[in-house]
Write a structure and sequence with these properties.
Blueprint lengths: L13 H21 L8 E7 L5 H16 L6 E7 L4 H17 L2 E10 L1 H6 L4 E4 L4 E3 L11 H6 L24 H26 L3 H7 L4 E3 H7 L4 E2 L2 H12 L5 E4 L5 H28 L4
Parallel strand pairs: 1-2, 1-8, 2-3, 3-4, 3-5, 4-7
Antiparallel strand pairs: 5-6
Helix pairs in contact: 2-3, 6-7
Length: 295
Amino acid sequence: MLRGQPTRLAAPGAPLAVAAGMRRLLAMIRRLLTGRRLAPGKVAVLRLYGPITGGQRSAEWLESVRKLRTSKRVPAVVLDIDSPGGSAAAADYLFLALQRLDAEKPLVAHVRGTGASGAYLAAMAARHLVVAPNSLIGSIGVISAGPRLPALLERLGISVEEHTAGRLKGSGAPWRESNDEERVKEQAIVDAYYDAFVARVAAGRRLADGRVRELATGEVWLGWRAVELGLADEVGDLERAVEVAAQIAGVEPEVATVEIRRPLLGRLLERAVTRAARRLADAIEAELWERGPRA
């Protein structure tokens, strides 16, 4: 050893500790980006909350359903619903994915708040439906609507020049009234969706087609009444739905909630926008409070 050179002693096992720390950091990043892995042997709970739309949100639900279907760690799934429905096409596509899942492992549906229209259609893929006593169930029907604004545009002095190739290409345009042929075509599409909806419900609830059509008025019922009408199996909460799914699968009624993980950048932007909106609302409320009358 040369004189004047300080002696550096490495702590025993330091390289191993650094490597372990790096592995933990990488695992943390991986969980942040992709979500935690589900614990094996537990009933997975997948949330279907809010409107059923197409695009990115529908794709995220479908991917979660696919992963649950193919995962050997998941013995059963509970679809936890609080949704008014939404896009007929997106709801039916979700139904097909859930039906495929139920063919592989038990799927039980639970409605905590609202299970209406397309959300009720999605529930028809499950082999058992548990509903909260005062949830809103049903709304078996289809609607297609859009504004017609020719009178308003005329008052504003606005005209729209339309050029189409194909006589029905401009169907549904808001700047003019629909013609008879367009109305007939639109109604035919609505009727086709309705017939498919009725058929899904008839198969899922094991009811005659005629009986379903008697109930398919577009109205909703409270959960307990839906059970009496045969539109659901029993009244209960999420724990009861988990118990049913676990019993069918032959496992303990333990839960693993599935978190649909959006891209990290999207989540960060959403949080930033939410915080900005809250600050703006607080500022407006404070301003109104300052200007308003006081006792």
